[in-house]
Design a protein that fits this description.
13 strands; nine-stranded mixed beta sheet; Rossmann fold; 12 helices
Length: 329
């Protein structure tokens, strides 16, 4: 694998001597993982028992020894399991640990649906999930994924993040799995390597701040926001969470983890974050931080934040114009 020179230099500045192991991991095969659908398993007359290694931070995630032809498996098409990357299943652990009562939840950047599926497994009974995707074609894929999952407590929308300003303080929990430079997916996505540049990293970081600014008013006071990316650099990760603390009034919330999981803590002082590095955890590169909203005061928007996302946003075609009726069902 030929990595961009500037990327190599940036990883050395972040991880030092560990970078060599990181590059070796990026040049190896990615593990194959699935998460079972607990709702479908209850109705499976044949049972679904496999002697597989479990993903330690997920109740329903398992590693496969090799990648089968999923397209030929009727159980896959019936929604009995979903092919999901192991590191991203950590979202389930975060939600299960901190959300104990029925909640109204928004998955803002939901396609193709893996994290929405994780949320549906982790949220308490009686919760509602609004799963949103800006790009219409991807929203259709998201809808198909949730239809196969077979749970009626979810709604798919096709909206710009700013549209949720119309629903102030509606959500108890928001997941922002932000569009990013995709460094953590290099061994799976060659296009991400080709498109990578320091300019693209800066553009992604600015766009992520725009997204957080757009959706923050729709989070209830005391509500939780899970911020995640599949990239390594600190600009899109720790620095954006610290920006959220200073500009939006957010505060960090700790997540209990096991030391045996190999999760790397924040690389930046004063940030509470969780990093999955492919040479330390069996999965792809992933970053998670849990933020909490304080009072309902309007955030002080950082006017220096780039507005490229708002200028170049794609036109959305909303599936649902008013979700408040669903939130009070």
């Amino acid at each position: 694998m030929k990595l961009p020179e500037d990327f190599i230099l940036s990883m050395w500045s972040l991880f030092g001597n560990d970078s060599k192991q990181l590059f070796e991991a990026l040049d190896s095969d990615a593990p194959v993982t699935i998460r079972l659908n607990p709702h479908k398993l209850k109705r499976n007359p044949l049972g679904f028992k496999l002697p597989l290694e479990p993903v330690p931070w997920s109740d329903w995630g398992y590693y496969l020894k090799e990648r089968p032809a999923f397209t030929f498996d009727p159980l896959f098409h019936a929604g009995y399991y979903y092919v999901q990357e192991a590191s991203s299943m950590f979202v389930e652990h975060v939600v299960r640990q901190h959300v104990k009562e029925p909640a109204v939840c928004l998955d803002l950047c939901g396609a193709p649906g893996g994290k929405s599926v994780s949320l549906l497994s982790a949220l308490p009974e009686g919760s509602l999930l609004v799963s949103n995707e800006l790009v219409r074609q991807r929203a259709n894929i998201l809808s198909e994924t949730l239809t196969k999952y077979g749970i009626s407590s979810s709604v798919v929308t096709n909206n710009h993040p700013r549209d949720f300003n119309a629903f102030p303080e509606l959500f108890d929990l928001i997941l922002v799995d932000a569009p990013c430079s995709g460094e953590g997916m290099f061994r799976k996505d060659k296009v991400a390597i080709e498109e990578w540049s320091t300019q693209n990293v800066a553009m992604c970081a600015a766009r992520q701040r725009d997204i957080l600014t757009d959706v923050w008013p729709s989070l209830k006071p005391g509500g939780l926001l899970v911020y995640s990316t599949c990239t390594f650099n600190s600009s899109e990760n720790e620095e954006n969470t610290l920006w959220s603390v200073h500009a939006l009034g957010a505060s960090f919330v700790e997540v209990e983890i096991e030391s045996t999981w190999g999760i790397t803590p924040s690389l930046v002082r004063d940030a509470v974050c969780y990093r999955f590095l492919p040479h330390k955890t069996s999965g792809e590169g992933f970053f998670v931080a849990l933020l909490q909203k304080g009072d309902s005061a309007e955030p002080e928007i950082d006017q220096k934040s780039a507005s490229s996302y708002k200028k170049g946003r794609q036109k959305s075609s909303p599936f649902v114009k008013d979700i408040t009726d669903f939130a009070t069902w």
